[in-house]
Design brief:
The chain has a domain at 255-351. Helices cover 12% and strands 31% of the residues. The chain has 3 helices and 35 strands. It has helices spanning 2-19, 250-253, 332-350; strands at 28-29, 36-39, 42-45, 48-52, 59-62, 71-72, 77-79, 84-86, 89-90, 100-101, 107-109, 114-116, 119-120, 130-131, 136-138, 143-145, 148-149, 159-161, 164-169, 174-176, 179-180, 190-193, 196-198, 203-205, 225-227, 233-236, 239-242, 264-269, 272-276, 281-283, 286-287, 297-298, 303-305, 310-312, 315-316. The strands form 9 sheets. Strands 1-5-4-3-2 form a 5-stranded antiparallel sheet, with helices on one face. The chain is flat, with a radius of gyration of 26 Å.
């Protein structure tokens, strides 16, 4: 029944493409193996541009656009010969010919106004308008958080931190998401990323000196740092921790046996966090016991391999040769059936 619905939807789509009629906005399911990711949330299928309708990118909605002139500006904005698009929706107030996406952010401008996403930014001076990071911008008169003016900050001394998008500072206060942080030492304050900051006295997590569970943030504040861009892991002189959203205490977030000096991210996906150090490979915080760190690599969210073995998640696939393995053609269910039969035969022979 589901296959019939899918093919009916696909045939309808192809008829519309051939006829040149406007496409329906009814979401459809596409074969991801036949789609092309253009960037951001924009996908190409045949001669049509689509955007996903849900987080896992299974169902898609077609954009009513002129395909041959469609151009991606960054992951948020796109244009064709007639329109400007933000995440697939026409930005009706934008002037097409003068429109500019600003860096890899949701900020943009045209000859008349500035934008944050689909919203216009009020009272902006376009001549002096500049982007500070993903969330903040300024002109000669104001600091803007997204499309809103921040009236409580000092415009002249306001600055952001390279490693942190949510911490800012001016001559009067350090801020987390625009809220002043009481007692912060302004001369030594710095944003670290992933919700963390520090000054000479202490660490801060989401602007607080205590964790989300009310217990102290007890990572070593002098040596603590966030590991890479994902912000999921941090380390100090004593160990490696999964710090994202946790805020300590360190005993609850410690990755056992991990080496702080050699620990690194290998592959980060919402369904699979692979990391390694000089001694071990980890899936989430669990050691993949038989994996060789020096030759280990990830093939997709399910399969990985080293010079000796192929793994499905943390389990080695016995009898599978890594030199010949292809995840696109490998049938796990057939392997599992054969493996179980071999295990049963071995047990019977032993008995």
């Amino acid at each position: 029944m589901m296959k019939k619905i899918f093919y009916t939807s696909l045939i309808t789509l192809l008829i519309l493409l051939k006829s040149g009629l406007c496409l329906t906005e009814e979401p459809i399911r596409l074969d991801l193996n036949k789609t092309i990711l253009m960037g951001g949330n924009y996908y190409q299928y045949n001669n049509t541009i689509f955007i996903p309708t849900e987080e896992h990118h299974v169902y898609f909605r077609p954009i009513d656009t002129h395909f041959n002139s469609f151009k991606l500006l960054n992951e948020y904005f796109a244009v064709d010969k007639n329109h400007v698009f933000f995440k697939g929706e026409v930005l009706k107030r934008a002037h097409r010919n003068s429109f500019q996406a600003l860096k890899e952010t949701p900020f943009a401008r045209d000859k008349n106004q500035a934008f944050y996403g689909r919203n216009s930014i009020p009272q902006v001076d376009l001549k002096s308008f500049e982007i500070l990071n993903h969330f903040y911008a300024r002109d000669k008169n104001h600091i803007f958080h997204e499309e809103k003016i921040l009236n409580h900050v000092d415009t002249a001394s306001f600055r952001v931190f390279e490693k942190s998008a949510t911490y800012t500072i001016d001559k009067n206060h350090a801020y987390h998401q625009n809220h002043p942080i009481k007692g912060a030492d302004l001369n030594s304050f710095e944003g670290l990323g992933s919700g963390y900051a520090r000054d000479k006295n202490q660490l801060y997590c989401f602007g607080n000196t205590v964790g989300l569970n009310g217990k102290p943030i007890d990572y070593d504040h002098a040596t603590f740092e966030i590991i890479k861009e994902s912000g999921i892991y941090g380390k100090d002189k004593d160990g490696v921790y999964r710090v994202f959203t946790h805020c300590g205490p360190k005993k609850n977030t410690l990755i056992k046996k991990a080496d702080p000096d050699s620990f690194e991210e290998v592959f980060i996906h919402q369904d699979a966090f692979y990391t390694k150090d000089k001694n071990h490979v980890y899936l989430f915080e669990k050691i993949i016991e038989e994996a060789d760190p020096s030759s280990f690599r990830v093939l997709n969210i399910y399969y990985s391999m080293d010079k000796n073995k192929v793994f499905r998640e943390e389990k080695p696939l016995k009898g599978v040769d890594p030199r010949k393995f292809d995840p696109k053609t490998f049938n796990y269910e057939e392997w599992k059936k054969a493996h179980n039969q071999q295990e049963a035969a071995s047990k019977d022979a032993f008995d």
